[in-house]
Amino acid sequence: MPDRYAVIGHPIAHSKSPQIHTWFAEATGQDMVYEAIDGGAEPGGFEQALHAFARHGGRGMNVTLPFKLQALAAADVASDDARAAGAANALRWHEGRLEAQNFDGVGLVRDIEVNLGQPLRGKAVLVLGAGGATRGALLPLARAGVARLAVLNRTASKAVALLDELAANLPPALALHSGGTDLLPGLPAFDVVINATSASLSADAPAVPPQAFAPGGLAYDMVYGKGLTPFLRLAQSAPNVRVADGVGMLVEQAAEAFAWWRGVRPQTDDVLKRLTVPLA
Ligand code: NDP
After folding, report:
1. Atom of ligand 1 nearest to the CA of 248
2. Is there a single domain that holds both residue 53 and residue 146?
3. pLDDT band at 278 (very low <50, low <70, confident <90, very high)
4. Is there a single domain that holds both residue 227 and residue 254?
5. Domain that holds residue 92
6. 239 and 112, same structural domain?
7. Are 145 and 120 in contact (CB under 8 A)?
8. How far apart are CA 66 and CA 256, in angstroms?
9. What is the model's pTM?
10. pLDDT tens digits along 208-234
11. Which ligand 1 atom minimizes the distance to the CA of 129?
């Protein structure tokens, strides 16, 4: 019997995770099956589906919206990144315990540094947004050695509260800014600007002046499958800025989860090539 894995969310039909993990399993010769489970909209639906999956031999799960908070709450133990994010995107049953991880931030850093060839050590990084995606990205960005980190949001108070909460977990030498995007004209340019807002989903962009993008830098939209988003178009109006969407982050967090479950890290290049849609 192959080992069972799944992604759980609501809705879930759009998820690329079953395809990605099936490709990983084929490439690494792992005997496993991977399915999509809809946790439904009813209260308690996630927990019921989780326990039913475990009873039927489930070994691990990816978790997507809207269950990432509940996944953390359901776990017996959680990684530092999952606790800092306040959310889990991967679970495994291991030695009788349910363990939680959050690989979104690690996936983001790996995509930027390895796939896109943009080193982060010593760089100035701006993260736009103060929701779950930003929360999950901050510790991994700090571990990558960024020198200056700004978290700016449409609602300034949310960015300030988020950084206040996480500051104790960040290196003291890291220069931090938080507040509204209206601070941007007063700040030096950033080598990497990450759009961690959901603005692109409604064909909108956070308010960023072109001067915020340092020449030779990278503009990264966590959203994927939307082509050249208004944020990426805005970045292109600055001189010599490369643009990327979040498909690599998706694939890299999947590879991290796969390695955590199976003990073998799949190559991501081929999967990334198959999923990448040209931006222009
Ligand atoms: P949340 O709903 O938790 O947060 C949304 C954030 O976006 C808030 O800070 C909100 O600001 C801001 N925002 C929304 N609309 C606008 C707008 N029109 N202009 C400016 N700011 C806006 O979302 P998440 O943090 O969970 O996700 C953010 C994005 O990241 C999503 O689009 C998601 O698809 C993507 N993502 C991609 C992943 C990947 O693997 N590539 C993984 C995880 C997330 P305010 O506080 O003012 O409301």
Report:
1. 41
2. no
3. confident
4. no
5. 3-102+248-270
6. yes
7. yes
8. 21
9. 0.97
10. 999 999 999 999 999 999 999 999 999
11. 9
Tell me the two tokens of residue 203.
Answer: 């064909």
The domain that holds 35 is classified in CATH as 3.40.50.10860
Residues contacting residue 254 through CB under 8 Å, at least 6 positions apart = 17, 20, 21, 24, 62, 107
Same domain for 236 and 260, yes or no, is: no
Same domain, 131 and 226: yes
Does some domain include residue 43? yes
Encode pLDDT of 113-128 as tens digits.
Answer: 999 999 999 999 999 9
HSE, side-chain direction, 13 A CA sphere, residue 12: 21
pLDDT tens-digit readout, 147-188: 999 999 999 999 999 999 999 999 999 999 999 999 999 999
Indicate which CATH number applies to the domain containing 119. 3.40.50.720
- Say yes or no: 190 and 71 in one domain: no
Supply the ipTM of this predicted assembly: 0.99
Which residue is associated with the tokens 């943009």?
118
Number of separate domains in the chain: 2
Q: Residues with Cβ within 6 A of ligand 1?
A: 104, 129-134, 153-155, 158, 196-199, 201-202, 204, 206, 222-224, 246, 249-250, 253
* 155 is annotated as contributing to ligand binding: yes
Pick the residue whose CA is nearest to atom 1 on ligand 1.
131
78 φ, ψ (degrees, to nearest 5): -140, 150
